[in-house]
Amino acid sequence: xxxLIVGAGAIGSFFGxxxxxxxxxxxxxxxxxxxxxxxxxGLGLEEKNRVLFQTNLTAVPNVADVTGNAFDLLxxxxxxYDTAQAMHQVARSAIGRVPLLLLQNGVGGExxxxxxxxxxxxxxxxxxxxxxxxxxxxxxxxxxxGGIGLAAASPGAQVDDLVATLRQADFGEIxxxxxxxxxxxxxxxxxxxxxxxxTILDTPPDKIYGQRRLFDLExxxxxxxxxxxxxLGLKSVRLPGYPVPLLAWGMxxxxxxxxxxxxxxxxVGGRGGKMPSLHLDLIKGxxxxxxxxxxxxxxxxARRIQLGAPMNHALHSTLQAIVSxxxxxxxxxxxxxxxxxxxxxxx
Length: 347
Ligand SMILES: NC(=O)c1ccc[n+]([C@@H]2O[C@H](COP(=O)([O-])OP(=O)(O)OC[C@H]3O[C@@H](n4cnc5c(N)ncnc54)[C@H](OP(=O)(O)O)[C@@H]3O)[C@@H](O)[C@H]2O)c1
What we know:
alpha/beta, Rossmann fold, four-stranded mixed β-sheet, 15 helices, binds NADP nicotinamide-adenine-dinucleotide phosphate
């Protein structure tokens, strides 16, 4: 298979490394420091305490550099907020009808891509393996529990061949789904946990879960997302390595005395020791955040169907204001009472 991966950072490079190692022809579109590193020493993947450099792939800085090549699959692994720009770059090239896989978090990427590439068959993908960037061209698989979920996201898109290809390329558990939105929202449920709250408070998730009021806030936001899913007719699905329906049941039914310790172990273990992704973007000073496609998506969908999602609205608007510089982050760093007051739960 000839694969073009646009936006190769942690996930795109991991995906490309595995496919190239399985004998596929891989081209990565990535930032200049990555291109330089990969061209000089190959793409490094650290796992099980050793680094394997893959030299059997191509790295280029722009989609325009690959015009003229033929591909069987286009994969978008940018952050969701960069999808529109990346897919418009693809649309300007000659590869706009190649099947497109969006391997990302958040809700809304497929709809953005449909606007830029209306004729491409679209596949939705979620990945539950944590991958960390060590330096440009060098990544680490931070935990081995997980895999990839795939679903058709447009008429005519086929997942079966890709499922078979990925099963032969050492990606862990590969599952396919009938409804891509159920898969996406189920991943959103996982990504909401220990993400916006630790980011706003600039405090690691394990410290957040030590505080019962903050745990209550996370639980309330999670239950709002479940209510939106229910109203949209979506049921949570099991994701590779993660029994999301069981989590959803526990979050909405179990007493906090039982749930709280379970929750701490579940999140801290699953993240492979990483600070949450929203925090990484904030400290990079990107002024863009996937919170728009996580808590923001919950709040937005809730508004459209006239359902309340006040916790998600508050978390989204607070983090968005910090990201854009309208609110000083220092006002919230290490100050849970400020966030609790902002969501309407004063001490
Ligand atoms: N990392 C994980 O463990 C993990 C796990 C599951 C899911 N995810 C999800 O997977 C998606 C990708 O995450 P990631 O961690 O791989 O992000 P990442 O490391 O930031 O990789 C994305 C890369 O794409 C680059 N990029 C953006 N627009 C581009 C363009 N038009 N052309 C070329 N390069 C472009 C970015 O460069 P700049 O930063 O310079 O803009 C960045 O290097 C996200 O939705 C994330 O939430 C991540």
